[in-house]
Amino acid sequence: MLLSVIIPNFNSGPLLEISIRRLFQYPSAISFEVLVMDNCSTDGSTDFINEAQFPEVYLISQKDGGVYYAMNEGIRRSTGDWLYFLGAGDCFFPEQLKESFFQSQADFIYAEVDQSPSSLRGKVSLSQLLHENICHQGIFYKRSAITRFGGYDPRYRYLADHILNIRFFFDPRMKKIHLPLTIASYLGGGISLTRQDGFFRKNKKKHILRELYRNPGFRNGLAVANYFWTVGSIQFTRAFARYSPSSPLERPSHFDHSSHFDH
After folding, report:
1. CA 56, CA 24: separation in Å to the nearest integer?
2. How far apart are CA 34 and CA 41, in angstroms?
3. CA-CA distances (angstroms) from residue 253 to 42, 64, 195, 199?
4. Do 207 and 249 touch, CB atoms closer than 8 A?
5. Whole-number Cα distances in Å, 195 to 15, 58, 77, 131, 207
6. Strand residues in 137-196 grouped as ranges (E)
7. At the fourth CATH level, which superfamily is domain 3-194?
8. Which of 192, 7, 185, 24 is nearest to 87 (CA)?
9. In this structure, are strands 139-142 and 108-114 parallel, antiparallel, or unpaired?
10. pLDDT at 255
């Protein structure tokens, strides 16, 4: 299987069906499976899924600890060489893709998303990514690459994808390719926009320093120095000198234990 499309779901009403039906609306040149990782929804949002109508769609219904737990479980259960994550109500356009796009040596492929909440367009640099994330619905991850990083870190309740993308962009071994085409449309109102990730807010700078410690180099160092200067933080050289890779990450005083994925 070339591509696995993983959709976390929890009481999404009619939105999940919109996403699923759009996936199969037009003939596609690529082979893909769809895994719906459902957090035991009670609103009937998954009732339309049946093997006769959607043989490529697999419904996995079980309690999870949050959206990134569901996505990590989707990685574990999927079979595709490449992984793509979609929110209920978002629309993916597989007919825009060719198998040749995935036959390069890339580990991370990203494209454009209609109505994206991110202002980033075109090719993205590490310096840009430190300030703003690439829209999740525009990214394909090579399985071998994302598993090398251990998937998503669920301690970051709502922005683990930003942390993961930062790790990809710091690591010089990870080849990144931009496709100048629109491959999805974003519904809006996702959890990363509507909720605060306290763990991310308290540990972002420490995480950036950790990645620089792992992947030193002029370009990475320049991007990090620019980030610290732009956000008006303490002097970068002093912060890096004080940094230790054994420094623990900090949990916010009011840690959010919510596990709902409400797109």
Report:
1. 10
2. 18
3. 32, 23, 16, 10
4. yes
5. 20, 29, 28, 18, 20
6. 139-142, 176-185
7. Spore Coat Polysaccharide Biosynthesis Protein SpsA; Chain A (3.90.550.10)
8. 7
9. antiparallel
10. 39
Query: Could you tell me the two tokens for 122?
Result: 């075109």
Task: Report DSSP state, residue 174.
Answer: S
Single-letter code of the amino acid located at 101:
F
With tokens 């980030």, the residue in question is 227
User: Is 101 a residue whose pLDDT tops 50?
Assistant: yes
Closest CA to 139 of 179, 88, 192: 179
CA distance 6 to 214: 30
Residue 253 has a pLDDT of 46
Count of residues making up the chain: 263
For residue 111, give the 3-state DSSP assignment: strand
Residue 262 has pLDDT above 60, yes or no: no
For residues 143 and 82, the answer to whether their CB atoms sit within 8 Å is: yes
For range 23-36, the mean pLDDT: 96
Nearest to 141 by CA among 111, 100, 180: 111
Name the residue ranges covered by the structural domains of the chain.
Answer: 3-194
Are 198 and 252 spatial neighbours (Cβ–Cβ below 8 Å)?
yes
Of the candidates 6, 96, 16, the one whose C-alpha atom is nearest the C-alpha of residue 48 is 16
Q: Mean pLDDT, to the nearest integer, of 90-119?
A: 93
| Helix, strand and coil in the chain, % to nearest 5 | 35, 15, 45
Structure-token pair, residue 56:
């490529």
Please list, in sequence order, all residues whose beta carbon lies within 8 angstroms of the beta carbon of residue 209, skipping any fewer than 6 positions away: 224, 239, 240, 243
Flag whether pLDDT at 100 surpasses 60: yes
Question: Would the pTM count as exceeding 0.90?
Answer: no
Higher pLDDT, 195 or 116: 116
| Per-residue pLDDT tens over the stretch 236-258 | 555 655 656 666 666 554 434 33
